[in-house]
Write a structure and sequence with these properties.
The protein is α+β, with helices and mostly antiparallel strands. The protein contains 25 helices and 26 strands. The chain is globular and about 75 Å long.
């Protein structure tokens, strides 16, 4: 009897622990407003994991420990949706979307009836359905053909923004059955990091964020899916047993209350002209979003009006996809050339017949590597589909083989570096120059060193760098700091004012952050995200340089290959010389203070909530990390609880919200003054 009571008490304690972790997952992954430190969260998770290991019979499918992925599947099973997931009619012309409004009004009885519209972003991801029984996720499936999808529950469980157990709404118990519809996607920033990692390992890279999401969510091994940075936005419901909704806006509000992430771009309008205006506004700001959208979805807000409007074939009469202009176009491959990157990687690049895509004229597109070029079978003279999404480099997506005439030429990668003539070697799909004095690599390393996300040396453009290297005025990036005005004036098209501007920019760049400096060094496999992790872990370059293998792999997300690459970089004699030159040049950066308690360091921004909008010089993740290290919170949306909105160039709707709510708005310069009150 005592044993049963003891087990019941343990079960209750484990249940309470799970609720706490679910809540903090929601605060962290959905609201982006954590209430506890990472260390405290890790303690809670570890305690739950140890208890479940001790009492395996008490493990439940909705436990946070079950997100890591189950055993691999041989194949996915089919899942039939109780209510079909309808597709949407799509239009791209303003006249067509006005026709939609007229049809809706005509069908509902003319202009007398008031009609409100809800506008949602059309996420370029994969539609999913999640089935919850008594609040617990039981089935997750793809849209499929609308009637039948693939059952991928194990994979969807690994996505941290998908609740394994939903919250109660206003103290009411969870519904007996709730079907939630939404979109799985991969954030653009995470997509870039993933591709950088895959490319560094010589593995096949993804063409775009949608392909990355599709390839990740349909893995037969859920552990692979768990590793991929997927996200989820909910936008609707199917069956909601015991719950009735009067509006689509109410559906979204309900989903938000029970723990789902909803896109912050959603709006509702009573005037249809506002819908059209908002479409233009979102189109102009789409590249500021961290997820790909290809238009907006316009829905009649009233559920009763939706029911009256009904459906036509496979599409609802009450909703429409109002798409943006295509960012995919057809053009012709005029030539294929090879570029040499800063790590010596040889990248085939298609020289295209210029074509406008997304407001930019594209004349070149990456072919990634030899294996990708062969897989797509791209030839000189081919007609191809080229895609440009956001600031992702344009790339050749596919070949229109039906347009071949027989005159197309196959391309072969060179067996010597096209720049320095040194031999090349193949590492997986990557062909790499092994020349120790390759000019192309030096140019690319200096471009990276001076780039916006690294030391941000304004005015030091590609043409200037090429001249400096070609004239042997610099042998590595640190030589930039020893240039004089007379040196610069020797360059073509260099005037006194431009030379002085470059010198001023070089002087300014000497005072940087640890994160930027690590990123600027160009360590192989160390992109922005990994540089940020290293800056969080180590006090300065000396401690990073002296770190051992175990120190490095103890950092979450730093694996064996990245750790070995960092160790190899700091073992090189040329690295020591480069670091010595940085010190002689007077390059300095903010260092963490040794022996100062985290609470003391955190006092400056403690309790303050920041939201960033628009384009700022500092990488967004770095800015958020600084806020959090100084005790503040970095939120993704503006509310009355927001203390500061940091607005950069081309600030978006968050700025409008801040003005409306009376939230204090500051620029990046003021933000820098705030954080410099205390060195990290």
């Amino acid at each position: 009897m005592e044993e049963e009571e003891g087990k019941e008490a343990v079960n209750k304690y484990i249940g309470d622990l799970r609720k706490k972790i679910h809540y903090h997952n929601y605060r962290y992954y959905v609201l982006n407003e954590p209430e506890i430190s990472d260390a405290e969260y890790d303690r809670l998770f570890k305690e739950l994991d140890e208890l479940e290991s001790k009492y395996p019979e008490l493990v439940t499918p909705d436990s946070p420990t079950q997100r890591v992925g189950a055993n691999p599947l041989e194949e996915f099973g089919a899942y039939e949706h109780s209510i079909p997931l309808l597709s949407l009619n799509s239009v791209s012309a303003q006249s067509e979307v006005r026709d939609f409004d007229e049809r809706v009004r005509r069908f509902l009885g003319g202009v007398e009836e008031e009609i409100e519209y809800v506008v949602e972003p059309k996420i370029d991801g994969l539609a999913m359905e999640l089935v919850y029984e008594n609040g617990v996720l039981s089935v997750g499936s793809t849209r499929g053909d609308g009637k039948t999808g693939e059952e991928i529950t194990q994979n969807l469980r690994t996505i941290k923004t998908i609740p394994l157990r939903i919250f109660s709404d206003a103290d009411a118990p969870p519904l007996p059955l709730l079907e939630v519809r939404g979109e799985v996607f991969m954030p653009v920033s995470k997509f870039k990091e993933l591709n950088e990692e895959l490319g560094g390992k010589g593995e096949k890279m993804f063409a775009n964020p949608r392909n990355a999401a599709a390839g990740s969510v349909r893995q037969l091994d859920p552990k692979v899916t768990a590793y991929r940075p997927l996200d989820f936005f909910a936008y609707g419901v199917g069956i909601a047993e015991g719950k009735e909704f009067s509006t689509q806006w109410g559906v979204l509000d309900y989903l938000r209350r029970i723990g789902f992430k909803i896109s912050p771009v959603i709006r509702r309008f009573k005037e249809f002209e506002d819908v059209i205006e908002y479409h233009e506004k979102v189109k102009a700001k789409r590249d500021e979003l961290d997820y790909e959208i290809d238009g907006i979805v316009v829905k009649v807000n009233s559920i009763e009006q939706q029911d009256r409007l009904g459906t036509i074939s496979r599409s609802p009469r009450w909703a429409l996809a109002y798409k943006f202009p295509a960012r995919e176009e057809f053009t012709r491959v005029m030539d294929i050339v090879v570029q040499v990157g800063r790590t010596g990687a040889l990248t085939p690049v298609a020289v295209l017949e210029p074509v406008p895509i997304g407001g930019v004229t594209v004349s070149r597109a990456t072919l990634h590597n030899e294996d990708e070029l062969r897989r797509k079978d791209v030839r000189i003279g081919d007609t191809v589909v080229v895609e440009r999404a956001g600031d992702v480099i344009p790339e050749v997506v596919s070949v229109i083989k039906s347009k071949r005439t027989g005159t197309e030429k196959e391309f072969r990668m060179p067996d010597r570096c096209p720049v320095c003539g040194a031999e090349v070697m193949k590492e997986g799909p990557i062909v790499r120059c092994i020349g120790v004095s390759c000019v192309a690599q030096l140019k690319e390393r200096i471009k990276h060193f001076a780039s916006l996300r690294a030391l941000n040396i304004e005015g030091l453009g590609e043409k200037v760098i090429e001249q400096l290297v070609d004239r042997k005025m610099v042998s590595d990036a640190t030589d930039l700091f020893f240039l004089t005005k007379s040196d610069l004036l020797k360059l073509e098209r260099m005037g006194d004012k431009l030379a002085q501007n470059i010198l001023d920019a070089l002087e300014k760049s000497k005072h940087t952050t640890f994160f930027r400096l690590i990123h600027a060094l160009g360590i192989r496999h160390v992109g922005e995200h990994t540089a940020s992790l290293l800056a969080d872990k180590f006090r300065d370059l000396e401690s990073l340089r002296n770190a051992g293998y175990d120190d490095l792999i103890s950092i979450p997300e730093v694996g064996p290959e990245v750790a070995k690459s960092i160790l190899l970089f700091f073992e090189q004699g040329s690295t020591k010389e480069l670091l010595d030159k940085l010190e002689r040049a007077g390059v300095s950066y903010e260092k963490k203070e040794v022996g100062v308690a985290e609470e003391t360091v955190s006092k400056v921004l403690e309790g303050k909530t920041f939201v960033f909008t628009g384009r700022i010089a500092m990488p967004r993740e770095e800015a958020k990390g600084i806020v959090e290290r100084l005790g503040g919170k970095a939120a993704s949306s503006v509310s009355k609880r927001t203390d500061y909105v940091v607005a950069g160039e081309e600030a978006g709707s968050k700025l409008d919200t801040a003005v409306r709510l009376g939230v204090k708005i500051i620029d990046e310069a003021v933000f820098m003054r705030l954080i410099k009150k205390r060195k990290l």
